[in-house]
Amino acid sequence: MSTTFRFTEPLPPKAATGRVAEVYEQLARDFGIDKAPTFVVLSSAPEILAPTWALMRESLIAGAGSRTGKELAAYGVSHANKCPFCVDAHTVLLHATGDHALAERLARGERPENEEHARVLSWGQHTRVPGAGLMPYPFPPEHAPAYIGTALSFHFINRIVSSLLTEQLMPGNVQRWRPVRSLAGRSMAGTVRRTAVPGAALALLDEQAAGPAWAAGTTVGPAYAALRAAAGADLLDEDEQAVVRETLWDWDGSHPPLSWPALPDRREQPGARLAVLAALAPYRITQEDVTAWRRPEHTDRCLVRLVAFGAFAAVDRIESSFTLHAARERS
Questions:
Q1: What is the CA angle 172-20-223, rounded to 5?
Q2: Do the beta carbons of residue 204 and residue 23 sit within 8 Å?
Q3: DSSP 3-state helix, strand, coil percentages of the chain (rounded to 5)?
Q4: What does each of the 331 residues of the chain score in pLDDT, given as a tens digit?
Q5: Contact 215, 241 (CB under 8 A)
Q6: Which residues contact 159 (CB under 8 A, 6 or more apart)?
Q7: Does the active-site annotation cover 86?
């Protein structure tokens, strides 16, 4: 039994063909990890996998601004979303940038010494709250598309990871030992510090739309628009979709309590329940939740798409704040 994947059994990366194989090729070249579970778990749904990778690549990897700053924003997002897997991953990636002392301060639960770093970290954490006052930005305005894209990318990825992966970034969670995470980061340093050319991931997308105003015409925009288009709701009926929308509309960014009256009943609306959990508390999805929804016709691809729908519903709610800020700047 896999110690990495929950509820699905992705094909081994060596068996990948077509667009999935192309994503893995770019992952190896630009991310430094060709078998990253974060993306392998999406491989049964290439229409979700490709834009997820594209959004992360075009913002975090190829977007404007320092990699350290964007890793800090992603760390803040992951911490706010209670995603230990991703928190550990960004600690390792901060080692890869060469910011070893910063990575270890975060690993100890301490605030960054550098005030600019502290502001970026705090900004990332506060993006979980729809409508939060996120301006002025703690980075140059021209870097906003990459930082916002990074934050939204990891709001989505955190939810996928918490829904469909275990917490083990490495076997036995050995990345929580300082020498291991430092060594792992150093092994990726060459890739992480290399400049990536924007736009390479866009060729993997089915369609390319301009994207939201905050993307300001950068390659982050089409990647975000493609992920929005891919996260369809067709696995839920209209009543279930309405439940998800209404729950997200009332969401204030908090983590739901254990006693959660708004959570759909497992027997009556299992699909809506899974989508709402994926949006607001993905770490609380259980085998019972999945079993209650799953039918013989529900493949791994169906489950990935349903979780992606819920995850993106939360991202869309968060993104509305950035869209509103962009509209105000134009007026």
A1: 100
A2: yes
A3: 65, 0, 35
A4: 467 899 999 999 999 999 999 999 999 999 988 789 999 999 999 999 999 999 999 999 999 999 999 999 999 999 999 999 999 999 999 999 999 999 999 999 999 999 999 999 999 999 999 988 788 999 999 999 999 999 999 999 999 999 999 887 656 665 676 777 888 888 889 999 999 999 999 999 998 898 999 999 999 999 999 999 998 789 999 999 999 999 999 999 999 999 999 999 999 999 999 999 999 999 999 999 999 999 999 999 999 999 999 999 999 999 987 765 554 555 4
A5: no
A6: 81, 278, 279, 282, 307, 310, 311, 314, 315
A7: yes
Specify the residue for token string 């005030």: 115
Rounded to whole angstroms, what are the CA distances from 214 to 104, 133, 177, 324?
Answer: 33, 16, 39, 9
Q: Which two tokens stand for residue 295?
A: 């039918």
Q: Rounded to 10 degrees, what is the CA torsion of 290, 293, 299, 301?
A: -70
User: What residues contact 175, with CB distance under 8 A and at least 6 apart?
Assistant: 88, 91, 92, 169, 181, 184
What number of other Cβ atoms are within 10 A of residue 67's Cβ? 22
Amino acid at 135: M
Token pair listed for 309: 């729908």
The answer for residues whose C-beta is within 8 angstroms of residue 217's C-beta and 6 or more apart is 210
Active-site hit among 20, 73, 77, 86: 86
Q: Could you count the other beta carbons within 10 Å of the beta carbon of residue 264?
A: 20
